[in-house]
Amino acid sequence: MPGWPTAPLKFCAATTRRIATELRPGILDLGIVAAIEWQAAEFEKRMDMSCQVTCAYKEIPLESKISIAVFRIFQEALTNIVKHSGATRVEVELEADADNVMLQVHDNGYGIDAADLTKTHSFGILGMQERARSLGGEAGVRRTRSGTAAWLRLPRSPEAITGASAGADVMPFRHRIEGTPGTADTRGDAPAASATEI
Questions:
Q1: What is the pTM of this model?
Q2: Which one of 11, 40, 160, 189 is CB 3.0 to 4.6 Å from 51, fit for a cystine?
């Protein structure tokens, strides 16, 4: 309005943009696969650490709240790696079937201690688990022979919750598929979700 100071209006506009980004990052408009690949590339540039993404599909159709949760949990996993792992390499696997989307983020760092797994506020584990449970899924962190793996399983839509056993130690990821630089992306889309239209 005429005569109103511009600084508060600019602040409100900036705050609105920030909140909108936090609720649903714009990169998700390109799909969850592209969003995960973009975030991994950004992480690689900023941290000077290898972060390789493997996904057999060009896109995995998900409901909005599911794609947001996958993306945010992925970001939390990367934050934990920077803060606690001492890693030099990260490998990310994104997979889906008709019912679920699965994510695993594995680093070659120190490896999480068994005692840390029981600390309720340690390494952001509680927040990841609560977000996953609120959407009918599950998440966790486990020590591996070569570091630490954070994993996630979510139904592709809230109505597609299946009877997958809680606390599964190994997620059903495919073998790594290495692309050849400079070749066309020949991946297809993930199978359609079984319960509802996405």
A1: 0.70
A2: 40
As a whole number of angstroms, the distance between CA 197 and CA 193 comes to 7
DSSP 8-state assignment for residue 32? H
CA separation for the pair 166, 153 (Å, rounded): 10
For residue range 53-111, what is the model confidence (pLDDT) as tens digits?
999 999 999 999 999 999 999 999 999 898 877 899 999 999 999 999 999 999 998 87
Dihedral angle sign, alpha carbons of residues 108, 109, 110, 113: negative
Dihedral of CA atoms 70, 178, 112, 164 in degrees, nearest 10, equals 50
Cα(73)–Cα(75) distance, integer angstroms:
5
Task: Say if CB 141 and CB 124 are below 8 A apart.
Answer: no
Query: Which residue has 């990841």 as its token pair?
Result: 128
Rg (Cα) of the chain, in Å, rounded? 18
Query: For domain 50-177, which CATH number applies: 1.10.10.60, 3.30.565.10, 3.40.50.360, 3.40.50.2300?
Result: 3.30.565.10
- The length of the chain in residues reads 198
> 48 φ, ψ to 5°?
55, 45
Residues ≥6 apart with Cβ < 8 Å to 35 = 25, 27, 28, 67, 71
Inform me whether the pLDDT recorded for 143 exceeds 80. yes
Place of tokens 């493997």: 54
